[in-house]
Fold this protein.
Amino acid sequence: KAGVTQTPRYLIKTRGQQVTLSCSPISGHRSVSWYQQTPGQGLQFLFEYFSETQRNKGNFPGRFSGRQFSNSRSEMNVSTLELGDSALYLCASSPAINTGYNEQFFGPGTRLTVL
Amino acid sequence: QKEVEQDPGPLSVPEGAIVSLNCTYSNSAFQYFMWYRQYSRKGPELLMYTYSSGNKEDGRFTAQVDKSSKYISLFIRDSQPSDSATYLCAMNTNAGKSTFGDGTTLTVKP
């Protein structure tokens, strides 16, 4: 079974621009979560999508948004980029068949650098 | 204060040493406790998962949860250079959202 794929792997943008990152989950997984990882803040939860609906949301400003398509693929968008948005953005997919805990499988991440 | 605090490291040990990695938490609603390993330029991968208090062993790895003290640990026996990575603890409530520690970077020297 193919793992979680994320595109692009690396991205360089300038302040004020917007960016869209893509995630393809493992086949059959209906839940996709997005995380931001930085040296100072660690791994922080952005949001989770399940069956095209946002199910959980972290404490990030409205510049961060996402969506999920009917094939479970997900995109996240960051508008009006700031220097502090430079980070590794990780996507994790899960079968989401249990309440409480479902194993998450992470992709390799997209490294975003904002200049 | 963060909900999950992880010993920051970095940690450097000789090959064959026993390694102890630790996290504390403040949210009593956490029911599920995970340890992830993250190699450089890769996403985290699940190492171990435990539910509620107790010990769980998998090969050279033992996860320990003490809910009364709000403290979890991961022990690595006979550490190998291939164990060099960043280790992240994570916790879930029944709502399913994961909260991660900041990670501890481990280096095992041959």
